[in-house]
Specification:
about 375 residues, alpha+beta, Naphthalene 1,2-dioxygenase Alpha Subunit, Chain A, domain 1, 2 domains, 10 helices, Rng_hydr_dOase-A
Length: about 375
């Protein structure tokens, strides 16, 4: 079966057999409880792969990005041999955070006392070295974490014994195989924003398209209305995915010859648990990686990547990039307003549960099931 033909249920048909006819939303305290948030950071983010960004952001040796694995600061560094290495982002002297943001460097130098580390984390320089016992500092290196590049994205895990990402997401890879995501061009269109909302509320928003027509009136709503949502595979423990079609008048020009007829008219919205979000269009991909900072504060890191077929064919690719990014910026502003209003409403603290639409919000239930499976709550 063609991957795209799995999406064969629409709003005008009966529910797929594995979608409940009645689903409840989580209680408001799920998004406001401080103890629960702290528990999620360890039970979830310490025990699964976490998406941090695109491989193309750091293509050359010495290029790095910084992120957080739950509450743990990390550095992802491109090594001299081309591989990626993820290290704890703190100095072994007195725990100062070593690097901020993204950039390129020949070595890692602590800004406090100038301890120097190689790109692989080995400690090679200590000022006033005679003040330390040689046995205490010789052979020291920054702690390393599991790292994997897959489908053009970077995944990091604290644990070394997890199932590889390539195995974990093999079903998602099959569905999206014709898009060749690992060949999409990263034009360094990356934004970092602080959202005043619990990380789960942001995730909920992006994995359902019930709100598209009603929230995105100035951006994607007219081209991708809620009534054209199509859904198919559900129940995978590691991700969720659905598709939405373009209206006839908004069909994009297609430059990827490998896409089939159904893929020409659709875009796919995938949530890669626990924090990765990917919207795959025929000519570009929008992605977001969530970094929870507190119970009601989340760092949202997002970017746009472009099909190499489109970039090689479009007469003015720079203009195309600018136009697409402008639309996505507007859509993101629309989403941010609604999510922050959800957080404000959840602060009331009611024990009553909301309701989820079947089938349009079944993906929220799938994500909530994942969270409960790892956290127990």
């Amino acid at each position: 079966m063609s991957p795209s033909k799995q999406f064969n249920y629409t709003l005008n048909q009966s529910l797929a057999p594995n979608i409940p006819s009645r689903m409840l939303a989580r209680q408001q305290k799920t998004f406001t409880d401080l103890d629960l948030f702290a528990h999620e950071m360890t039970s979830i983010f310490d025990n699964d792969w976490v998406m941090v960004g695109r491989s193309g952001e750091i293509p050359n040796p010495g290029d790095y990005m910084t992120a957080s694995l739950g509450s743990r600061p990390i550095i992802v560094m491109r090594q001299q041999d081309g591989d990626l290495r993820t290290m704890a982002n703190y100095c072994l002297h007195r725990y100062v955070k070593l690097l901020e943001g993204c950039g390129s460097t020949k070595s890692i130098v602590c800004p406090y006392h100038c301890w120097v580390y190689k790109l692989d984390g080995e400690l090679v320089g200590v000022p006033e070295r005679e003040g330390f016992r040689a046995g205490d500092i010789d052979g020291l290196s920054l702690e390393t974490l599991a790292t994997e590049e897959y489908l053009g994205y970077v995944f990091v895990a604290l644990r070394q014994d997890l199932l590889p990402v390539s195995e974990r997401l093999k079903n998602l890879s099959y569905i999206l195989k014709n898009f060749e995501l690992d060949r999409y061009e990263d034009r360094h269109v990356v934004h970092e924003e602080q959202w005043n909302a619990n990380w789960k509320l942001i995730y909920h928003n992006f994995i359902e398209s019930y709100h598209t027509t009603y929230t995105h009136t100035k951006s994607i709503g007219p081209a991708n209305p809620t009534k054209l949502v199509e859904y198919g595979p559900t129940g995978d423990p590691n991700f969720t995915i659905h598709s939405n079609s373009y209206t006839h008048e908004h069909q994009p020009a297609i430059y990827n010859p490998q896409l089939d007829e159904n893929e020409h008219r659709r875009f796919y919205v995938a949530g890669v648990f626990p924090n990765g979000l990917v919207a795959v269009e025929p000519n570009f991909v929008w992605w977001m990686a969530l970094e929870p900072k507190s119970v009601d504060q989340t760092n949202a890191r997002w970017g746009v990547s472009f099909s190499h077929h489109a970039m090689q064919t479009i007469p003015d690719p720079d203009k195309f990039v600018k136009e697409i990014v402008n639309v996505i910026e507007i859509a993101t502003i629309e989403d941010k307003e609604m999510v922050e209003r959800m957080q404000a409403g959840a602060n009331f603290g009611s024990d009553k549960s909301g309701l989820l639409h079947a089938p349009l919000e079944v993906y929220i239930k799938e994500f909530d099931d994942y969270v409960m499976r790892l956290s127990g709550h």
